[in-house]
Write a structure and sequence with these properties.
The protein has 3 helices and 2 strands. By secondary structure, the protein is mainly alpha-helical. It has one domain: Winged helix-like DNA-binding domain superfamily/Winged helix DNA-binding domain (Arc Repressor Mutant, subunit A), CATH 1.10.10. The termini are far apart. Keywords: DNA-binding, Transcription, Transcription regulation.
Length: 73
């Protein structure tokens, strides 16, 4: 994915993750990649990917279990 660095990056990543979720890349109940793995994949900082994950969690697409990670709803 080519990120447009002229605008905020985390919403672009959140959009891409939504698209991938909708395409069935991760199934309900499956563990979602962590911020470190996503940061490496998108070549951004962990805080950037964490913002995207928080947005998906707030939308009800993910649930986070403290100490265990995020899971697809």
């Amino acid at each position: 994915m080519d990120l447009d660095r002229a605008r905020p990056v985390w919403p672009q990543i959140a959009d891409d993750l939504r698209r991938r979720l909708d395409a069935g890349e991760w199934k309900a109940g499956e563990r979602f990649p962590g911020a470190v793995a996503l940061a490496a994949e998108y070549e951004v900082t962990q805080s950037t990917t964490q913002k995207a994950v928080v947005a998906l969690r707030e939308e009800g697409r993910l649930r986070t279990v403290l100490g265990a990670g995020s899971y697809v709803v």
